Protein backbone atom coordinates (compact mmCIF):
# COMPACT_ATOMS: atom_id res chain seq x y z
CA UNK A 1 0.00 0.00 0.00
CA UNK A 2 3.00 2.34 0.37
CA UNK A 3 4.10 4.14 -2.79
CA UNK A 4 7.82 4.24 -3.57
CA UNK A 5 9.79 7.46 -3.54
CA UNK A 6 9.27 9.53 -6.69
CA UNK A 7 11.86 11.43 -8.67
CA UNK A 8 13.01 14.83 -7.51
CA UNK A 9 10.45 17.55 -8.24
CA UNK A 10 11.57 20.03 -10.94
CA UNK A 11 12.23 23.53 -9.65
CA UNK A 12 9.68 24.99 -12.09
CA UNK A 13 6.85 22.79 -10.82
CA UNK A 14 3.90 24.86 -9.58
CA UNK A 15 1.72 22.48 -7.57
CA UNK A 16 -0.81 25.16 -6.64
CA UNK A 17 -1.54 25.98 -10.29
CA UNK A 18 -1.63 22.30 -11.25
CA UNK A 19 -4.15 21.54 -8.52
CA UNK A 20 -6.32 24.49 -9.48
CA UNK A 21 -6.34 23.49 -13.14
CA UNK A 22 -7.30 19.94 -12.26
CA UNK A 23 -10.05 21.03 -9.86
CA UNK A 24 -11.56 23.45 -12.37
CA UNK A 25 -12.27 20.61 -14.80
CA UNK A 26 -14.88 19.39 -12.27
CA UNK A 27 -14.40 15.90 -13.71
CA UNK A 28 -12.31 14.37 -10.93
CA UNK A 29 -9.93 11.44 -11.23
CA UNK A 30 -12.54 9.61 -13.29
CA UNK A 31 -12.20 12.39 -15.87
CA UNK A 32 -8.47 11.72 -16.19
CA UNK A 33 -9.11 8.04 -16.77
CA UNK A 34 -11.83 8.78 -19.31
CA UNK A 35 -9.36 11.04 -21.14
CA UNK A 36 -6.97 8.11 -21.40
CA UNK A 37 -4.07 9.43 -19.31
CA UNK A 38 -1.07 7.10 -19.52
CA UNK A 39 0.89 8.80 -16.73
CA UNK A 40 -0.27 9.84 -13.27
CA UNK A 41 -0.10 13.66 -12.97
CA UNK A 42 2.51 14.88 -10.50
CA UNK A 43 -0.07 16.24 -8.05
CA UNK A 44 -0.88 12.59 -7.22
CA UNK A 45 2.74 11.50 -6.65
CA UNK A 46 3.57 10.61 -3.08
CA UNK A 47 6.57 12.68 -1.87
CA UNK A 48 9.36 10.77 -0.04
CA UNK A 49 8.36 12.23 3.34
CA UNK A 50 4.83 10.84 2.93
CA UNK A 51 6.22 7.40 2.21
CA UNK A 52 7.70 7.41 5.70
CA UNK A 53 4.49 8.72 7.27
CA UNK A 54 2.37 6.10 5.54
CA UNK A 55 4.53 3.22 6.72
CA UNK A 56 4.14 2.66 10.47
CA UNK A 57 7.00 0.28 11.24
CA UNK A 58 6.08 -1.19 7.89
CA UNK A 59 8.95 -3.66 7.69
CA UNK A 60 6.70 -6.70 7.75
CA UNK A 61 6.42 -9.05 4.81
CA UNK A 62 3.18 -9.75 3.00
CA UNK A 63 2.82 -12.98 4.99
CA UNK A 64 3.16 -11.06 8.25
CA UNK A 65 0.52 -8.57 7.09
CA UNK A 66 -2.01 -11.39 6.99
CA UNK A 67 -0.84 -13.11 10.19
CA UNK A 68 -3.56 -11.35 12.18
CA UNK A 69 -7.15 -10.63 11.26
CA UNK A 70 -9.59 -8.20 12.84
CA UNK A 71 -12.40 -9.86 14.84
CA UNK A 72 -15.64 -10.90 13.16
CA UNK A 73 -18.68 -10.46 15.41
CA UNK A 74 -21.90 -12.28 14.56
CA UNK A 75 -24.85 -10.14 15.69
CA UNK A 76 -27.44 -12.87 15.20
CA UNK A 77 -29.52 -13.37 18.32
CA UNK A 78 -28.64 -10.01 19.89
CA UNK A 79 -32.19 -9.88 21.30
CA UNK A 80 -31.59 -13.00 23.39
CA UNK A 81 -30.12 -12.01 26.80
CA UNK A 82 -27.57 -14.82 26.92
CA UNK A 83 -26.45 -14.37 23.34
CA UNK A 84 -26.39 -10.60 23.73
CA UNK A 85 -23.96 -10.87 26.65
CA UNK A 86 -21.60 -12.85 24.42
CA UNK A 87 -21.91 -10.28 21.63
CA UNK A 88 -21.35 -7.36 24.02
CA UNK A 89 -18.19 -9.02 25.34
CA UNK A 90 -16.83 -9.55 21.81
CA UNK A 91 -17.68 -5.99 20.74
CA UNK A 92 -16.03 -4.57 23.85
CA UNK A 93 -12.85 -6.61 23.45
CA UNK A 94 -12.56 -5.83 19.73
CA UNK A 95 -13.13 -2.12 20.31
CA UNK A 96 -10.57 -1.88 23.08
CA UNK A 97 -7.93 -4.10 21.48
CA UNK A 98 -8.30 -3.22 17.81
CA UNK A 99 -10.64 -0.29 17.31
CA UNK A 100 -12.04 -2.28 14.38
CA UNK A 101 -14.22 -5.32 13.89
CA UNK A 102 -16.34 -6.84 11.17
CA UNK A 103 -19.99 -7.69 11.72
CA UNK A 104 -22.16 -10.40 10.19
CA UNK A 105 -25.93 -10.86 10.43
CA UNK A 106 -26.28 -7.14 11.00
CA UNK A 107 -29.80 -6.87 9.58
CA UNK A 108 -29.05 -5.08 6.30
CA UNK A 109 -30.04 -7.42 3.45
CA UNK A 110 -27.34 -8.37 0.97
CA UNK A 111 -29.57 -7.03 -1.79
CA UNK A 112 -29.43 -3.55 -0.26
CA UNK A 113 -25.64 -3.76 0.07
CA UNK A 114 -25.32 -4.70 -3.59
CA UNK A 115 -27.68 -1.94 -4.69
CA UNK A 116 -25.79 0.76 -2.79
CA UNK A 117 -22.52 -0.38 -4.39
CA UNK A 118 -24.21 -0.30 -7.78
CA UNK A 119 -25.62 3.15 -6.96
CA UNK A 120 -22.22 4.57 -6.04
CA UNK A 121 -20.67 3.11 -9.17
CA UNK A 122 -23.58 4.38 -11.23
CA UNK A 123 -23.10 7.92 -9.97
CA UNK A 124 -19.46 8.07 -11.05
CA UNK A 125 -19.98 6.29 -14.34
CA UNK A 126 -22.94 8.37 -15.51
CA UNK A 127 -22.70 11.10 -18.14
CA UNK A 128 -20.06 13.63 -17.08
CA UNK A 129 -22.34 16.59 -17.82
CA UNK A 130 -24.87 15.31 -15.26
CA UNK A 131 -22.23 14.52 -12.66
CA UNK A 132 -20.57 17.94 -12.99
CA UNK A 133 -23.68 19.56 -11.54
CA UNK A 134 -22.76 18.06 -8.15
CA UNK A 135 -19.03 18.91 -8.20
CA UNK A 136 -18.34 21.57 -5.59
CA UNK A 137 -16.27 22.46 -2.53
CA UNK A 138 -19.26 24.09 -0.87
CA UNK A 139 -19.86 21.70 2.01
CA UNK A 140 -23.20 23.28 2.87
CA UNK A 141 -24.78 21.43 -0.05
CA UNK A 142 -26.88 18.38 0.99
CA UNK A 143 -25.04 16.31 -1.62
CA UNK A 144 -21.75 17.06 -3.33
CA UNK A 145 -18.75 15.33 -4.84
CA UNK A 146 -15.14 16.26 -5.53
CA UNK A 147 -11.62 14.89 -5.45
CA UNK A 148 -10.04 14.98 -1.98
CA UNK A 149 -11.58 17.32 0.60
CA UNK A 150 -8.04 18.56 1.37
CA UNK A 151 -7.00 18.93 -2.27
CA UNK A 152 -5.52 22.40 -1.79
CA UNK A 153 -3.73 21.72 1.49
CA UNK A 154 -2.36 18.18 1.25
CA UNK A 155 1.17 17.52 -0.06
CA UNK A 156 -0.14 14.76 -2.33
CA UNK A 157 -3.54 14.11 -3.90
CA UNK A 158 -5.13 10.68 -3.49
CA UNK A 159 -6.29 8.81 -6.58
CA UNK A 160 -9.94 8.93 -5.51
CA UNK A 161 -13.23 10.74 -6.07
CA UNK A 162 -15.75 11.00 -3.22
CA UNK A 163 -19.34 12.07 -2.79
CA UNK A 164 -20.83 13.03 0.55
CA UNK A 165 -24.44 13.49 1.57
CA UNK A 166 -25.87 14.56 4.91
CA UNK A 167 -28.71 12.14 5.68
CA UNK A 168 -29.40 13.02 9.34
CA UNK A 169 -30.49 14.81 11.44
CA UNK A 170 -31.88 16.91 8.59
CA UNK A 171 -32.36 14.59 5.61
CA UNK A 172 -32.20 16.17 2.17
CA UNK A 173 -35.14 16.50 -0.14
CA UNK A 174 -35.21 13.52 -2.53
CA UNK A 175 -34.83 15.88 -5.49
CA UNK A 176 -31.50 17.10 -4.03
CA UNK A 177 -30.02 13.63 -4.47
CA UNK A 178 -28.75 12.26 -7.81
CA UNK A 179 -31.46 10.35 -9.59
CA UNK A 180 -29.14 7.44 -10.39
CA UNK A 181 -28.69 6.53 -6.70
CA UNK A 182 -31.49 8.46 -4.96
CA UNK A 183 -33.74 5.61 -3.83
CA UNK A 184 -30.98 3.33 -2.58
CA UNK A 185 -29.27 6.17 -0.70
CA UNK A 186 -32.46 6.80 1.23
CA UNK A 187 -33.05 3.10 1.93
CA UNK A 188 -29.44 2.37 2.85
CA UNK A 189 -29.30 5.37 5.18
CA UNK A 190 -32.35 4.20 7.11
CA UNK A 191 -30.82 0.76 7.52
CA UNK A 192 -27.47 2.13 8.67
CA UNK A 193 -29.13 4.43 11.21
CA UNK A 194 -30.88 1.43 12.74
CA UNK A 195 -27.64 -0.52 12.79
CA UNK A 196 -25.71 2.39 14.26
CA UNK A 197 -28.14 2.68 17.16
CA UNK A 198 -27.78 -1.04 17.85
CA UNK A 199 -23.98 -0.83 17.79
CA UNK A 200 -24.04 2.10 20.20
CA UNK A 201 -26.29 0.10 22.53
CA UNK A 202 -23.81 -2.78 22.48
CA UNK A 203 -20.89 -0.41 23.06
CA UNK A 204 -22.75 1.24 25.96
CA UNK A 205 -23.28 -2.13 27.59
CA UNK A 206 -19.63 -3.07 26.98
CA UNK A 207 -18.68 0.07 28.92
CA UNK A 208 -20.92 -0.96 31.79
CA UNK A 209 -23.52 1.70 31.02
CA UNK A 210 -27.21 1.58 30.25
CA UNK A 211 -27.87 0.41 26.67
CA UNK A 212 -29.38 3.80 25.81
CA UNK A 213 -26.46 5.88 27.12
CA UNK A 214 -24.54 6.67 23.92
CA UNK A 215 -27.72 7.16 21.93
CA UNK A 216 -29.09 9.47 24.62
CA UNK A 217 -26.08 11.76 24.32
CA UNK A 218 -26.76 12.05 20.56
CA UNK A 219 -23.93 9.84 19.28
CA UNK A 220 -26.38 8.52 16.67
CA UNK A 221 -28.01 11.84 15.83
CA UNK A 222 -26.11 12.55 12.61
CA UNK A 223 -25.34 10.48 9.55
CA UNK A 224 -23.04 11.20 6.63
CA UNK A 225 -22.89 8.80 3.71
CA UNK A 226 -19.70 8.84 1.66
CA UNK A 227 -19.19 6.99 -1.59
CA UNK A 228 -15.57 6.54 -2.68
CA UNK A 229 -14.56 5.70 -6.23
CA UNK A 230 -11.07 4.47 -7.11
CA UNK A 231 -10.66 4.41 -10.91
CA UNK A 232 -8.08 2.13 -12.51
CA UNK A 233 -4.65 3.76 -12.18
CA UNK A 234 -2.03 3.58 -14.96
CA UNK A 235 0.87 3.88 -12.48
CA UNK A 236 -0.36 2.62 -9.10
CA UNK A 237 3.16 2.51 -7.69
CA UNK A 238 3.26 6.33 -7.70
CA UNK A 239 0.15 7.12 -5.70
CA UNK A 240 -2.34 5.95 -3.08
CA UNK A 241 -6.11 5.61 -3.06
CA UNK A 242 -6.30 6.86 0.52
CA UNK A 243 -3.45 7.97 2.78
CA UNK A 244 -3.07 6.89 6.39
CA UNK A 245 -5.71 8.54 8.56
CA UNK A 246 -8.11 8.17 11.48
CA UNK A 247 -11.84 8.94 11.33
CA UNK A 248 -13.15 11.90 13.35
CA UNK A 249 -16.62 10.37 13.74
CA UNK A 250 -18.29 8.38 16.52
CA UNK A 251 -18.55 5.31 14.32
CA UNK A 252 -17.77 4.46 10.73
CA UNK A 253 -19.63 1.57 9.11
CA UNK A 254 -17.68 0.61 6.01
CA UNK A 255 -18.90 -1.48 3.10
CA UNK A 256 -16.12 -2.87 0.91
CA UNK A 257 -16.54 -4.09 -2.62
CA UNK A 258 -15.02 -7.34 -3.85
CA UNK A 259 -11.71 -5.72 -4.82
CA UNK A 260 -10.55 -5.02 -1.27
CA UNK A 261 -7.41 -3.06 -0.43
CA UNK A 262 -8.43 -2.03 3.09
CA UNK A 263 -5.64 -2.12 5.68
CA UNK A 264 -5.59 -1.16 9.36
CA UNK A 265 -2.86 -0.85 11.94
CA UNK A 266 -2.97 -3.91 14.17
CA UNK A 267 -0.80 -5.50 16.86
CA UNK A 268 2.84 -4.40 16.96
CA UNK A 269 1.95 -1.42 14.75
CA UNK A 270 1.88 -3.57 11.62
CA UNK A 271 -0.47 -3.04 8.69
CA UNK A 272 -3.13 -5.73 8.57
CA UNK A 273 -5.14 -6.65 5.48
CA UNK A 274 -8.91 -6.68 5.88
CA UNK A 275 -10.13 -8.94 3.05
CA UNK A 276 -13.75 -8.42 1.98
CA UNK A 277 -16.20 -10.84 3.58
CA UNK A 278 -19.41 -11.24 1.55
CA UNK A 279 -22.30 -9.61 3.38
CA UNK A 280 -20.11 -8.28 6.22
CA UNK A 281 -19.49 -4.67 7.26
CA UNK A 282 -16.42 -3.15 8.91
CA UNK A 283 -16.94 -1.04 12.04
CA UNK A 284 -14.37 1.61 13.00
CA UNK A 285 -14.36 3.25 16.45
CA UNK A 286 -13.92 6.95 15.61
CA UNK A 287 -12.09 9.76 17.37
CA UNK A 288 -15.22 11.27 18.92
CA UNK A 289 -16.22 7.98 20.51
CA UNK A 290 -12.72 7.54 21.88
CA UNK A 291 -12.91 10.98 23.46
CA UNK A 292 -16.42 10.34 24.82
CA UNK A 293 -15.56 6.96 26.32
CA UNK A 294 -11.83 7.29 26.98
CA UNK A 295 -11.11 4.34 24.73
CA UNK A 296 -7.59 5.12 23.53
CA UNK A 297 -6.34 3.32 20.43
CA UNK A 298 -3.66 4.19 17.86
CA UNK A 299 -5.58 3.23 14.73
CA UNK A 300 -5.42 4.24 11.14
CA UNK A 301 -6.75 2.70 7.98
CA UNK A 302 -6.18 2.81 4.25
CA UNK A 303 -9.00 1.63 1.97
From TrEMBL:
Transmembrane segments: none annotated. Keywords: Iron, Metal-binding, Oxidoreductase. One of its GO terms (molecular function) is dioxygenase activity. Residues 221-303 form the Fe2OG dioxygenase domain. Residues 1-10, 53-63 have a biased composition (Polar residues). Belongs to the iron/ascorbate-dependent oxidoreductase family. This is Fe2OG dioxygenase domain-containing protein.
Amino acid sequence: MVAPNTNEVPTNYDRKSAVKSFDETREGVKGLVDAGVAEVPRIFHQPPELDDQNSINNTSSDSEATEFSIPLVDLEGHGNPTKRNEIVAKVGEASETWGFFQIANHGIPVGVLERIKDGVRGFYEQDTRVKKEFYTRNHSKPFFYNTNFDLYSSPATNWRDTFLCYMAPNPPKPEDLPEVCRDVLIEYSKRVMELGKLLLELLSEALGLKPSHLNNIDCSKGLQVLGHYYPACPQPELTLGTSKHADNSFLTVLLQDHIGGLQVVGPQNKWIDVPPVPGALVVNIGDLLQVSTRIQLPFFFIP
